[in-house]
Amino acid sequence: MRITKPPMIRAAQSHLIYNQEIVLNIDDPHLAAVTNNDTWKTDYYPVSALCEGILKWRVGGQLLQKALWFMTPDDREFLLTGITPALWDKLLPPSPFSQVDGDDVPF
């Protein structure tokens, strides 16, 4: 049986990219997250706030961090780029020139 998503979710969904999908929380349908084919998903947020924020950002031109202020930086980055925190770590490993604890200068 296929469940039809409410119009608010379908409207916000149409503005997502990178194969992202809005999914409802099974235990509480008032909460939703954004996922990319179940390899990673954001935290759950109130459906209305999430959908309205996505539309303010994508359609209204509001800055992502203002429209979705309640999301974690990792969740907002995922919406913006489609890149998960684990993939960022893989793409940008720590530099050998990173500062070590107790070291005042990086070199």
Brief descriptors of the model:
107 residues; alpha+beta; three-stranded antiparallel β-sheet; 5 helices; 36% helix; globular
Written as H for each helix and E for each strand, in order along the chain, the element string is: HEEEHHHH
Largest sheet features: 3 strands, antiparallel
Q: How much helical structure, as a percent, in the residues?
A: 25-40%
Distance between the termini: 61 Å
Structural class: alpha+beta
The number of domains is 1
H/I helix tally:
5
Number of extended strands: 3
Please give the radius of gyration in angstroms: 17 Å
Average per-residue pLDDT, rounded, comes to 85
Shape: globular
Low-confidence stretches: none
Spatial strand arrangement across the major sheet: 1-2-3
The amount of beta strand, in percent, is 5-15%
Care to give the gist of this entry?
The protein is of the alpha+beta class and 107 residues long. Helix content is 36%, strand content 10%.
Describe the structure.
- The chain has 107 residues and is an alpha+beta fold.
- The chain has one domain (7-91).
- It is built from 5 helices and 3 strands, in the order αβββαααα.
- The chain has helices spanning 7-13, 47-58, 64-67, 73-81, 85-91, and strands at 21-24, 31-35, 45-46.
- A 3-stranded antiparallel β-sheet has the order 1-2-3.
- A hairpin with a 6-residue loop joins strand 1 (21-24) and strand 2.
- The protein is globular.
- It starts with 6 loop residues before the first helix and ends in a 16-residue tail after the last helix.
